[in-house]
Amino acid sequence: MSSPWQRPSPTQSEQRRDIILGLVMAVAGVIGTELAKGTSPGPVEMGLGGVEAYFLSAAIALPLCFRRRYPLTVLLTVSVLFVLAGERTPFAFAGSLVTQAAQFMAIYAAVAWSRDRRRMKIAVVVVFAGMFCWLFYGFLKALREDTIQGADQGVLSPYVSFVILNFAINVLYFFGAYFWGLTSWRVAKQRDELEQQAAELAAQQQANARRAVIDERLRISRELHDVVAHHISSIGVQAGGARRVMETDPDAAKNALSVIENSSRTAVNEMRQLLGMLRAADPDLDLDGPELKEPQAGADRLPGLVASVSGDHLSVGFHQIGAPVPLPETVSVSVYRIAQEALTNVRRHSTARSAHVTLRYLGEAAVEVEVIDDGRPKHAPVGSRLGHVGIRERVGLLGGESEIGPRPVGGFRVRARIPLAPATNLVKENSGD
């Protein structure tokens, strides 16, 4: 459960403005008291030493210097001084707008700026109860002393009219300050929440951007691994064979060198295609050359892949099942790369003498590629373990399922089924690269 929202503490600028406000209102209170004294039709009671009225007029405003920093303390202090001024210097209390404004602003600040909402509500209830009790005490005092006189020309008596009018004014005064402060607090809360949401959204956008960069790096890593590993592996095997038969069988060595030449050219061509694909998002970048316009690797090139891999030490067959259907480019490229990676692993990490690639078109629902061999893992150091990870990532991104691991009857199987429509990922993993 999240903690209740708390309004941030006032800034240094807001506190400076409060101090200026409190001082200005204190001076205005003294001036207002003097003006009320000068316009009074009769003698007035100035209190102790003839200065109590001036003192209370200033004292009731000075706590406003801290109205946002200590709102509840200011509310209680101003409320006590408010009642004291009303009892000790009634003429100044009634004639000074500063006194009325100070109490109003104290209530507003307490509701708008109090961080502890429970204590705020208790303080407001205490102050309101005290104020209305004091108000009704004044009504009873006026009734007892019969100080409310009038022409008695209305429907209600002068006293009843006085009570209703003053009660209504006080209700509007006190509850108006309360609801104004509550509105300010809610606006501040909403503004803070919007700022937090904006910050969270910005952080989420940054996280998404970082994730996009990571995904792009993984894609680049996977493509580079698929392109380079296959052809470098082929070049390494052919070079080793050429070295062994260079003196005893020059023709075989020449054939191996020819394969190396073709593999290196194909690798360069596919590398240029890969670079073109990675830069395709920026129309301002252009890589000249006819290679970029050649078709990318796809399922239709599997027979050529099988022919290029098959040789003296590894016999690779190919079989296609089902009527071919048009494949999305991403699916077609993935089928080719999965078969390419599987055959590369057979040559590099297996004792297999034969392998078989099967391409199955399962109607318009899915396409399946399977590579099986009859060997077992070599005891030589294993590879980077990126090949099978790349296969799983490809299949997972396309919503398919993969099965990678040893066969019960011997050998190894790499099988990937990719739906031609969106589907739920189901990855079945038996082994790593």
Automatic annotation (TrEMBL):
UniProt cross-references to CDD domains, sorted A to Z: HATPase_UhpB-NarQ-NarX-like
InterPro entries: HATPase_C_sf, Sensor_HK_TwoCompSys, Sig_transdc_His_kin_sub3_dim/P
A cellular component term, taken from the record's GO annotations: membrane
Higher taxonomy: Bacteria, Bacillati, Actinomycetota, Actinomycetes, Propionibacteriales
Keyword Nucleus: no
Keywords: ATP-binding, Kinase, Membrane, Nucleotide-binding, Phosphoprotein, Transferase, Transmembrane, Transmembrane helix, Two-component regulatory system
Pfam families, alphabetized: HisKA_3 (PF07730)
Catalytic reactions of this protein: ATP + protein L-histidine = ADP + protein N-phospho-L-histidine
Domain Signal transduction histidine kinase subgroup 3 dimerisation and phosphoacceptor: 216-281
Membrane-crossing residue ranges in chain numbering: 20-40, 46-65, 70-86, 92-113, 120-139, 159-181
Protein name: histidine kinase
GO molecular function terms listed in the Swiss-Prot or TrEMBL record: ATP binding; phosphorelay sensor kinase activity; protein dimerization activity
Domain of life: Bacteria
Documented EC number(s): 2.7.13.3
